[in-house]
Design goal:
Strand content: 5-15%
Order of helices and strands: HEEHHHHEEHHHEEEHEHEHHEHHHHHE
Number of helices: 17
Mean pLDDT: 83
Strand order of the largest sheet: 4-5-6-8-7-9
Low-confidence stretches: 21-45, 188-192, 356-372
Structural class: alpha/beta
Number of strands: 11
Radius of gyration: 27 Å
Helix content: 40-55%
Amino acid sequence: MAKLLSCVLGPRLYKIYRERDSERAPSGVPETPTSVTTPPSSSWDTYYQPRALEKHADSILALASVFWSISYYSSPFAFFYLYRKGYLSLSKVVPFSHYAGTLLLLLAGVACLRGIGRWTNPQYRQFITILEATHRNHSAENKRQLANYNFDFKSWPVDFHWEEPSSRKESRGGPSRQGVALLRPEPLHRGTADTLLNRVKKLPCQITSYLVAHTLGRRMLYPGSVYLLQKALMPMLLQGQARLVEECNGRRAKLLACDGNEIDTMFVDRRGTAEPQGQKLVICCEGNAGFYEVGCISTPLEAGYSVLGWNHPGFAGSTGVPFPQNEANAMDVVVQFAIHRLGFQPQDIIIYAWSIGGFTGGLVTRTVRQHLNLNNAEQLCRYQGPVLLIRRTKDEIITTTVPEDIMSNRGNDLLLKLLQYRYPRVMAEEGLRVVRQWLEASSQLEEASIYSRWEVEEDWCLSVLRSYQAEHGPDFPWSVGEDMSADGRRQLALFLAQKYLHNFEATHCTPLPAPNFQMPWHL
């Protein structure tokens, strides 16, 4: 009876992967009462084949889930319509609650029938036995056996906790449960006195912006968090996971962030290969509608690097919602996992991020600033390490006019703000002007023309920068260029711009080819 209840409440099973070694029966895992046939060895993985009762019950529950999602998103309009028609009175609500209760009982019965169908299937019984054993004992053998299954990630046991590193347990320098410290946007009107009257005047706008950000705004900014989109992409995501496991021997893990969100990750280890770049780990951060299963992870994989992919909170297997604070908390636990569990040194970790989140033009400024502000430039300026920006010259998402207008590409602002922070003396009036001219070039020929017009001497630029670094240290900002001529500042500004930004002639969603995946420049 206990096993039947586990089958009723257990997660949905999608695929069964073939054993990766010659061992069959997992030690420490109880045998199922019925003999279990292993998946055919002719293919690496196979879709789990449910019995007829489980299959039809699953279809009914999945349809109910879709209808519930549609009802949830349309509920404001439905309530408004029902209110206008007078259907929200007590005499109308009570019968409706009876219908809803009856429907819930029917769905509970369907779930029980699905559990019976699972209980009669030896493959599912073996899976649920291994899952329960892994929850009781997180041994390496149990986890190895569980990795042979692809199932609803909510039931996957946690592999890494944000408090695991000793420094976090001592609460020194790590995030609290409130999360990682973020840069906060400056007030929009700094010259206005913050009186009680002004607060009252701003209150309606603040309430409106909060409601927009937490309903429509978040889903516009991160469409990948919408359940209906995830449901439509599910076959593609399952295929992507199968490819990572089959071709790259990927290992899936669940990380628990400090805000309680569970982060879905996939790690591909290339340290055992002959390629030297396999010793470096590339952490891939997907765009606002991207998933590691089908995202930018393919570029560093093709280039031979070790790779760690993760999904935003609320995307696929990750829980939560993708607000900036949750994003920072998720990224923190991913990096800690890479260092303390996977064993990579910080200097061997590369962050590869696609897109900037694609701010939606329909959101008002107040909403973005107060609730959805990713402040990319400010966060980037806090980082002291090497950086390489890749500007897509035909990007149709992060341009504010048309893709052909390359000066409206928001990547330009990232470069300018980064250079102005790191080299403020170089990026004075002359340096800023010449970098803007270089950014305006629409082809490699025009870039080279501007570069040669100012006769940039790269050896001289390198010697100036190395001399300054040797004398003053590597920490930014630098005061190099303070006593330099205008011509020297122009040369140095162009040299730095070319080192910090590379152009890639493509649209926003075109995958970056492996040859274009290069390490950032550093002295």
